[in-house]
Amino acid sequence: MTEQLAAEYVEEIDPGLGEPLRVLQLSPTRLLAGMPWGKLRQIVPDPRLSENARVLKALSPEVQRQAEVRGAVQRAIKSTKKAENARDYARYLATVMRGERGEHWATPPFALWTEERLTTVKARSPFGVDHLVYLPYSMTGVLVDAETQHLAHFLLLDDPAAYGVTTQQVNGRTVGVEIYHSIGLSSARQIFHDRNLLGVIPNKNVALASDSLNKATQITNALLAKMTVVDTQSGESIPLEELVAVRQRQLKATDRAWMTLSTLRSFVVTAIFGKAGFERTSRSHAHRGRAGRANGAGCGICARPPAGRLQ
Fold first, then answer.
1. pTM of the model
2. What would the pLDDT profile of 276-305 be if each residue is shown by its tens digit?
3. Looking only at Cα atoms, what is the longest distance across the chain?
4. Where are the beta strands (DSSP E) in 227-292?
5. Ranges of the chain with pLDDT below 50
6. Strands (DSSP E) along the chain, which ranges?
């Protein structure tokens, strides 16, 4: 019995099987790991390549196959909003890499799928059992989620100086990766569907309340915390926050609240920008509008740099 138990564990790494990676084994086909983005880049090529038939012909058969499979799972980049979203994502990642956001940031893990069955082994460590997976040196895969984030990293590499980062920062950034292996195309498509189409987008009020770095929201929250008003029903002075609906999108006739959070924030934006504030309050960030991108102006609300400078 002791010999059988010992056989479950490896005593040394076998480099012939591939590059070892420590993982959490969620199920026989689902793993969770961390790795430098530069390593993920080796496994998942620039998704723009899969939509460039002329360039693709000159690449290796492995990359061509990866592009073919990627086209069966992922959305197109050309002529879609995905390219624009990736540019916004690149600017966001750049602020993270430059240390400007402190701990006020988060990015989801990449969901990597490969049809190949990966070899996983157990190894003893001072802290218990380590699970290792061998990543074959020629391994390729497709992202069933977070491809926009992946593309954003490639945009940073296109011109790192313009974003105020370095190639080393981009390639060396540690990212979380979910690895789905030895499952078929239909399963990968289902994961893509569930991850991209079943999520519930929060309403505007919830989104505004959660954005702690947005300047207009900061001012609005300060008013809620510090300002007192006279309650028309009781005649007493009470905090303004008791009369502002933070989570609701609309008020009902029976609500005690005077207004929603987005309405109060609209007052703040209009007080800052005057008449021009009316148009800005219709968006969570003014710089996402066409006019803002056309004239290269930065966002006065969230203090982001001009979009034109970073593209």
1. 0.71
2. 776 666 554 434 433 333 333 334 344 343
3. 81
4. 228-230, 237-239, 244-245, 259-260
5. 1-6, 284-311
6. 19-27, 30-36, 110-114, 119-125, 128-135, 142-145, 174-181, 228-230, 237-239, 244-245, 259-260
